[in-house]
Description:
Layout: H1 2-78, H2 82-95, E1 101-108, E2 113-116, H3 130-133, E3 144-145, E4 149-150, E5 157-167, E6 170-179, H4 181-189, E7 198-203, E8 208-211, H5 215-218, E9 237-243, E10 250-257, E11 263-270, H6 271-299, H7 302-344, E12 348-352, E13 358-361, H8 363-368, H9 374-377, H10 382-385, H11 388-402, E14 407-414, E15 420-431, E16 437-445, H12 447-463, E17 468-473, E18 478-481, H13 483-489, H14 493-496, H15 511-524, E19 526-534, E20 540-551, E21 557-566, H16 568-580, H17 592-609, E22 612-620, H18 623-630, H19 632-648, E23 655-660, E24 663-671, H20 675-693, E25 697-699, E26 702-704, E27 708-715, H21 721-737, E28 743-745, H22 748-770, E29 773-782, E30 786-798, E31 802-804, H23 806-816, H24 819-837, E32 847-851, H25 854-858, H26 862-873, E33 880-885, H27 893-906, E34 909-915, H28 922-925, E35 932-935, H29 937-940, H30 947-962, E36 966-970, H31 975-984, E37 988-990, H32 1000-1009
Parallel strand pairs: 27-28, 30-32, 32-33, 33-34, 34-35, 35-36, 36-37
Antiparallel strand pairs: 1-2, 1-6, 3-5, 4-5, 5-6, 7-8, 7-11, 9-10, 10-11, 12-13, 12-16, 14-15, 15-16, 17-18, 17-21, 19-20, 20-21, 22-24, 22-27, 23-24, 25-26, 29-30, 29-37, 30-31
Amino acid sequence: MSSPLHTKRIAWLVILLTMMATALYWWQLTRAADQLRSETIAQAELRARQLNSAVAEQVAILVRYADFAAQELADTYAQGKRREFFLQADKVKQRFPEGSLLQIGVIDAEGYLAYSNLGMKERVYLGDREHFKSHLGGGEPHLFISAPVLGRVSRQWSIQFSRPIQRNGRFAGVIVISLSPGYLHRTLATLSLAEEDSISIVRQSGEYLARNRGMEKALGTSVTSTRSYLGPDAQPSGSFRSTAKFDKVVRIYQWQRISEAPVVVVLGLSEHTLLKPVEEILAKDRLQAVIGTVVLWLLAVGAVVLLFRLSVQQGLIIERAEQLRVAGEKLRVSEKRLRTIFETEPECILVVDGKQNLLELNAAGMAILEAASMEEVHRKSFLDYIEPEHREPFVALHRQVMNGDSGILAFKTKGLRGTSRILEIHATPMLDANMEMVLLGIARDITESMHAEQQLRIAATAFESQEGMMVTNAAGVILRVNQAFTRITGYAPDEVIGKSPRILKSGRHDAQFYAAMWQSIERTGGWEGEVWNRRKSGEAYPEHLTITTVKDSEGRIANYVATLMDITASKSAEEEIRNLAFFDPLTRLPNRRLLQDRLQQALASSSRSGKGGAILFIDLDNFKTLNDTLGHDIGDLLLERVAERLVTCVREGDTVARLGGDEFVVMLEDLSENMLEAAEQAETVGNKILASLDQPYQLGSHAYNSTPSIGATLFNRDISIDELLKQADIAMYQAKKAGRNTLRFFDPRMQDSINAHAALEVELRDAIERKQFRLYFQLQIEGSSRVVGAEALIRWENPVRGLVLPAEFIPLAEETGLILTIGQWVLETACAQLKQWEKEESTRGLVLSVNVSAKQFRQTGFVGQVRNAVQRHAIDPKLLKLELTESMLLENVEDTIATMNALNEIGVGISLDDFGTGYSSLQYLKRLPLDQLKIDQSFVRDLANDRSDKTIVSTIIAMAQSLNLDVIAEGVETEAQRTFLENAGCIHYQGYLFSKPVSIEQFRALLERA
């Protein structure tokens, strides 16, 4: 009984054991299936995170590209640099990946499309677009990314990356960079994903930007609003499981938000696809489990089933390992693609570990650090590349990133070759393959932009000058004013910006004034002048206004710049000066300007009434001597006393004026209509003035006598003021010539003489231009007939006057200074003639004398002129003789002697002309380096009959011999004169006895006869 029971027990035990084994086996199978699913999903999630991060980084790079491009374009457009903007837009287009950029546009402040690189056929209104409305509120400029929209110009779906344009702190429009959702779609479609896997780029507000599948269906739609990655408070990354509304596929989603913009990359892995290999394995497992269970129950060989199960499990493990290998290969391909992006990125990308060691650096970064490889980069620690003053801020940024926060920092680096760069780094935390926190940074070289900002600051400083400045657009709307403008007008910037400058109009100028102003601006590009404007307080004030046009690169007017300066104070000073301008500050008498004004009125009154008037021109005699001896303060005191006496000599209605210096004018009005009686009345006043001014003056401690010379002229007809004053001036000079301290009336014959004098001066200048001068030559004889030289005498061959002698034009040449030009011509012509004489036997060795005027002799550089002429013509200087008059030696004797010594060093001879007519001190005469004395013809003319002349001539000859000087007599006309001179010891002669001055042709004939 016990055996069956035992058997039953054993059977139950076997059954129990089998049941336990079966239950344990199915439990383990279920647990292994769950574990396999979990591991598969975990591997998928890891791969999804890595792939998601890679895609998110690509999107972030594209966003940064768009952001940087929009910011640069907005800055250039705001500055009004249209040409640079167009060039920059072309460069931006080239920098974007092919097929990614659809359009670069500008929407103006009113919402209309102002520019499109696709061209504009019509005026398109875009003010209702969200990317335009997002910037209307003002505030800090930011990048805005729109939901996909259907373009009204391009007619394509696009995503708008926009930034506001701010000009002078005011909203001026929006820069829009339109990117293709199709490009993002194609980028996502290249990823190695299963057929039911999906990856999307979604705005954080929920709109699809791109999707690898169902793109056409997704555009214009939004994800479910309950998604955990939506909204500003969503986590930067995470995962969830959900059923897609597009295709009802259950997926495991992994999202990654990019830090640069409210954009999320969402990767969805099909749960069915992920678990399909596992379910296939598990299906086989379940089938085998059933078979095993049946075999176990049938054969009760749990051990064999267990061994078989273990064998099958080993195969499954190998198969799973192969699957993992394939997944790893795909990961390496993805990593390679990311490495390519990393190395070709134009911005610097770097990875720094927690100990501030540089782990990764792309080619752009190595170029900034001036290194060819990472080995060369690692010659220095990363902090050593950062300038000392920026290391502490970078360490703080590194600490912030290691704590899980992103950050931005501008810092300065120095490369291995010493080149400095300013970088702006966007740093964000990232987990590496070992799950260690590292710093991922993207750095942009902003050296040039920083320099540009500095230039802008300089320009802004210059704008804030002491002068008011106002800038308008081409339509005349005020865009900007400086602080000086506010100080002058009282208007704050926000009170005038956006308004017309007409707000400043004072109402004092009519429309014609402003029309002329704008005509000048349009014709010349600017206007400058004085205008009256009105301050905010209502006060009208004068200002000096300058308006200048500013044109763009195409020559169109872009702006008007006005510079204004308040001249209220200067106007007041000008008014005061104007009041003082009509009176002499010393004597307080009317000055020339007021005199001319009163003369104009007097002439008009005389012309109407027929009554006469007179002008008395008064000049103080020897006033210069008083100034030179007692000083200008005493001279000024005399002028004050004279002014006081003149006022007492005339009636209350007459005018006493001071023209300047010691010149006064008295204007007498309401004289008799009869010219003779008017002259008597003027003479009476003139004699009264003579008597009054002739009285002694007490000038401080000095007693002084002064006399005037007075010129008078009458008027009772039409005559110009200048002519009237000139007549009085001429009459005054006649009074001077008459001995001074006298009165003379104007004589028309004086004017005729002056006119003739002026006409002769004009003709003389014309003669110099037309080269109408000629040299004549008069023989100089030694003994009775031997020719030793000649004197060169200038003649003027005037086509109207005929042959003009020197006495008629040389004094005028001396007076006008033309003698310098004439004297230089004579010197050059004489040297050229000497050079010509060297070529002929009959004239070789002849000495040529040339007269030199006092002005010519005393001019600076005269010795150099003589030296240059001698050297230029290559003549023997001993054959050139300069004749100086005796009167020239009386002034500046020491300078005269120095000049004569310098001439002697050249080798030219010096003759003293007209000797005996002046006053020559023997003390000076013996010091003068002379070669010859020339006896004046006035002593030779009456030599035969006048005992005094004989004595003078004999004395001159004896004196010359005592000084070892040659002597020559001029004006010898008779043989008796020559005989006396020869007997007295003079053997050189010149005069009509031998020849008169003749032309060069006649001179040659005389030499041939001689």
